Amino acid sequence: MIFRQNYPYRLLTPGPVPLHPDVEKALAEPIIHHRTPEFELCLKNVSEQMKEVFATRQPVLMHTSTGTGAMESAIVNTLSPGDEVLCVVSGKFGERWAQISQAFHLQVHTLNVEWGEAVRVHDVKTALDENPNIKAVLLQACETSTATVHPIREIASVVKSRPNTLIIVDAITAVGAMMLEMDDWHLDVVIGGSQKAFMLPTGLSFIALSEKAWRFCEASTLPKFYWDLKAEKKSWLKGETHFSSAVPLVRALHVALKFLTGPEKMKTLSRIQTLAQATREAAEPLGLRVFSKSPSPSVTALIVPERVDSQKLRDHMEREYNLTLMGGQDQLKGKILRVGHLGYITDEDMYALIDILYRSLRDLGCTEVSKSSLEQARATLEKYL
Ligand SMILES: *Cc1c(COP(=O)(O)O)cnc(C)c1O
């Protein structure tokens, strides 16, 4: 990466996200062993705080893996070969649920949803009524590839009354980023990831199971070793992780959690909301329209003008202005830009985002985007920040 003098490096993707300076400092601390009183105290504090973030009385367990590891863990711990599952597919991460399920020889029913739209609760209910043997509904709280939130609370209330069905929620861009109450909403499995709402580097995933989901674990016969959550829970009760802990990441998590718990929690959530709202509105005068019909606070997908290839725009912004955003994948490749709202994002970053979008659109020939569009976009930011 070339660091241009006028443009410090900026990372505005839905994950990884920019780190708070206190988190960076924690990551630079000298290493200690994970079986020490000092680290055990840290883990104990983290365990309590994580329950608050997930809003659950259940243990929130940790894997040293990316988020996908916890998705696999959710499946191998609760299900058995041949089980029927319902995968809500409305983007890349919904597809991933179906792929993991297939890899483990589950019988996959897919509920395909137009990309950018939220799944309809009624459609989930119908699918469950028509296929009463479905053991789990697998979906995202926020489908990051389309920046869309699904009504998981309402879907959970449909699943709740079915003793043989779980709702398994990939909440990697939701838990810690928006309201999510695992116990009150009757979510059976909730998954989080370190490089998203938890404002850490990649490398930790989090998973919590309801009492109902723990009962499914007792019956599950899919093979598991590293992912064995029953073993992980046993260690958790002793104040340890089952295998070696990722000490620097856990210590950094302890620091990041001060922004996700207690009085700071609402401030963080409302900051994320504000950044999302400001981005959506400020993008409009620049000719960028919001893609999702059910937009997420954690990430915004913007449709670029027809003449522009969003991938080229994204690459141009990175090369010329040191700003990394995400493009679209598959059917959205070349069509959308995705801007993340998680992590340590300053007001200055937001002004830079608007400024660089304006310059880059002009650089790529969108001359209709005028100086006054930029001023309008800036005025919108001023209203929010
Ligand atoms: C980032 C993300 C994941 C996990 O991706 P990893 O690269 O494995 O960390 C899964 N689901 C969603 C919705 C995500 O945003």
Q: Got a strand count?
A: 14
Oligomerization state of this entry? single chain
Order of helices and strands: EHHEHEHEHEEEHEEEHHHHEEHEEHH
**Radius of gyration from the CA trace?**
21 Å
DSSP helix count? 13
- Mean pLDDT reading: 97
By secondary-structure content and strand pairing, the structural class works out as alpha/beta
Describe it.
The chain has 385 residues and is an alpha/beta fold. Helices cover 42% and strands 15% of the residues. The protein has 13 helices and 14 strands. It has helices at residues 21-27, 37-54, 67-78, 92-103, 121-130, 152-159, 211-219, 229-237, 247-256, 262-283, 310-321, 347-363, 371-384, and strands at residues 10-11, 60-63, 84-89, 107-112, 134-140, 142-143, 148-149, 166-170, 189-193, 205-209, 289-290, 299-303, 323-324, 336-340. Strands 2-10-9-8-5-3-4 form a seven-stranded mixed β-sheet, sandwiched between helices. Strands 11-12-14 form a three-stranded antiparallel β-sheet. Helix 1 (21-27) packs antiparallel against helix 9 (247-256), helix 11 crosses helix 12 (347-363) and helix 12 (347-363) packs antiparallel against helix 13. It is globular, with a radius of gyration of 21 Å. Residues 15, 66-68, 93, 140, 144, 170, 172-173, 193, 196 line the site of pyridoxal-5'-phosphate.
Question: Quick summary of this structure?
Answer:
With 385 residues, this protein is of the alpha/beta class. 42% of the residues lie in helices and 15% in strands. The radius of gyration is 21 Å and the shape is globular.
